[in-house]
Design brief:
The complex is a heterodimer of chains A (about 160) and B (about 120). Chain A has 8 helices and no strands. Chain A is mostly helical. Chain A is elongated and about 55 Å long. The mean pLDDT of chain A is about 95. Chain B is of the alpha+beta class. Chain B has one domain: Beta Barrel (OB fold (Dihydrolipoamide Acetyltransferase, E2P)), CATH 2.40.50.140. Helix content of chain B is about 15%, strand content about 35%. Chain B is built from 2 helices and 6 strands. Classes of the chains: A mainly alpha (about 160), B alpha+beta (about 120).
Chain lengths: ~160, ~120
């Protein structure tokens, strides 16, 4: 099946790093556990951030919640990417050809684009909105998109193993 | 970030002919089989150890368990070394031709559960 995969994926899977991850008694397991722990950091920060955008914790000025939560989310995403890369590398050709993984990859791109767009769109509103004041509709839209995309991403992540 | 995005983009463009064998979902648990014969190759690697077994009909790829589980259940690399006679009870893949996932294997009269 290797011959059907793109060259760069074959090279990645056959790299010394990929071999080391597969042959180590702990590397793959550690990456797997790390991926889940990073997910907890990521998703908890995302939920806090999006909940505030949707109007929860109204007593706190939105910027005081959204900005620190966004930094935690970014850290979580970075850790997810690092551990995810380890898991991907070990089985690059197989995983890349998995339909659910492809959907997951697309969702991650969408999620990051949504986050970057929201950062730009909502900068002024975050600076100016006080506690108990409503945020613009765009904030709620970005939050709903964010929650939908990231929960779907997590579901796809778990489903890779079954397709 | 741009590199990550580029890599993810590549992932989307990859052909879909081959599906990952992973988990128990892509195996036909309704039709268990037993594959018996000498072990021809061994990959004692994560996420799953793999052996090929020269059975009477054909050469089967038999997916075993993660190496840490193999170790803790008493199936180190020597247990499934090339040349050993193995009997693997498990389920044929619904995706990959001539591949099965072993529920348990018996080598030298010793049975090891792999699930």
């Amino acid at each position: 099946m290797l011959h059907e995969a793109p060259q760069f994926l074959i090279a990645l899977e056959q790299s010394a790093l990929a071999s080391a991850i597969r042959q180590s008694s702990w590397a793959y397991m550690t990456a797997n556990v790390g991926h889940i722990l990073a997910l907890m950091v990521f998703v908890s920060a995302v939920v806090v951030m999006d909940a505030r955008l949707l109007g929860a914790f109204a007593a706190a000025p939105p910027a005081t919640v959204v900005r620190p939560a966004r930094r935690w989310a970014a850290l979580g995403l970075l850790l997810m990417a690092a551990t995810g890369f380890m898991l991907f590398t070990a089985e690059a050709t197989h995983v890349a050809s998995n339909r659910v993984f492809q959907i997951k990859a697309g969702l991650i791109v969408l999620g990051i684009l949504n986050a970057l767009l929201a950062g730009r769109l909502l900068r002024e509103a975050l600076d100016q909105t006080q506690a108990f004041e409503p945020l613009p509709t765009a904030a709620r839209l970005c939050a709903v998109l964010s929650l939908t995309i990231w929960f779907a991403t997590a579901a796809c992540g778990r489903l890779i193993a079954y397709f | 970030m741009h590199k990550t995005l580029a890599l993810l983009g590549f992932g989307l463009a990859v052909p879909t002919a081959v599906l990952a064998h992973h988990g128990w979902g892509s195996y036909d648990a309704a039709h268990p089989i037993t594959v018996a014969g000498p072990i021809e190759t061994l990959k004692y690697e994560n996420p799953h150890a793999l052996i090929t077994v020269k059975a009477a009909d054909k050469v089967w790829t038999v997916t075993l368990a993660p190496t840490s589980r193999m170790q803790s259940r008493g199936a180190p690399p020597e247990f499934v070394a090339v040349g050993k006679m193995v009997s693997a009870y498990g389920y044929p893949s619904t995706v990959e031709k001539d591949e099965m996932r072993a529920e348990r294997i018996t080598v030298d009269g010793k049975t090891v559960e792999l699930r």
